[in-house]
Amino acid sequence: MSYPLDPYAAAKLNRANAGAYLERIKLPSSLLDSPPSLSLLSTLLLSQLEQIPKDTSPLHVPEAQWNGPSTPIKLGSAFTNMPLGISSFDRIVHDNKGAFCFSINASFASLLRYFGFVVSELVGRSFKSLGNDPSTHPDGWKWGTLTHQVLVAGWADCPDRYLIDGAWGPGNLAKPIKLTTEPEGETIIGLNEFEAYRLVYEQLPLSPSQTPPVDSIAGYTLYRRFAPIGTPHTLPITTASPGYWSPLFHTLLISVPLADYMLYHHFSASHELSAFTAFWLITRIIPGSGGARRSMMYAEKEGQGTRAKVYTTGGPEGRGSDEGRDVEWVEMETGTVKPYLVKEFGFKF
Questions:
Q1: Do the beta carbons of residue 48 and residue 108 sit within 8 Å?
Q2: Which PANTHER family would you find in this protein's record (predicted)?
Q3: What is residue 129's three-state secondary structure?
Q4: Cis previous bond, 212, omega within 30
Q5: pLDDT at 87
Q6: Is the pTM of this model over 0.85?
Q7: 332, 73 in Cβ contact below 8 A?
Q8: Alpha-carbon distance 98 to 76, whole Å?
Q9: Distances (CA, A) of 227 to 89, 224, 311, 314
Q10: pLDDT digits 0-9 by tens, 245-293
């Protein structure tokens, strides 16, 4: 891939490919003539998250390995096997597979532009102590590198813009959330009463012991609310409400050109410090479940063997707990994982 001559040119699906994408996410072709709206954006996002998994498997298994004799799956990086941007269209739409954020969100953006949405592709800094309260946990405000792509969408006759994310994974916000510079931010309930999220315009939050940057600009931090298990969230959420806010990521409202995504993609798919080379994750929201999520997770840890854990989290049944239920175990061999991906996630090989 060479450097693009027009780095901010935005990919947009034609009608035929947009129709194929809608079929992939189980939406009717009658939507092809719909004008952009918050309702349409919400529908497309939820169906995207229900049908297209976040999927790190291309980093670890070259495509040819699936078609040969059963072999052990070793975590690492088959770097050239993970598509970038809209080059993932065939993998996502025709092979019913997933990819990671730099593929999924870019492809989703190209679908949204077909409908007339104006979409900016941004890069985010992930929080590395997920689920913890940074004000009390020893990790504090522990931030990682710029390794997550997110989107901001708007349309011509709407004064508001919305952050959306089709590829975060567990704990994901499955609704658009409005950008605002008001100090209190924007707070919404997710797909069920045990999910709540807040988007705040602020400088990157840091611990008092951390050195502040010499120069910085404000961005948006997306937070997830944690409360005692079984405690539903109600608005407004105040300092007196049970629980705490834990960040997911922080992003700057600056459109990122394709060449820079090539750099982020290369680090995420190949560097020894990248989390993606060290774990296997395939995950999506269970359709019609109110936010329950089915995931397949594996990391090489001493004493845990070579089996992937498949489990369900979230949804009304989870009552705010991230504890896995309906647990199954799958041996990390191509011959056992392949049919499981077909059965559980709809992959085509």
A1: yes
A2: ARYLAMINE N-ACETYLTRANSFERASE 4-RELATED, N-HYDROXYARYLAMINE O-ACETYLTRANSFERASE
A3: coil
A4: no
A5: 79
A6: yes
A7: yes
A8: 18
A9: 38, 10, 22, 13
A10: 999 999 999 999 988 888 888 888 788 778 888 889 999 999 999 999 9
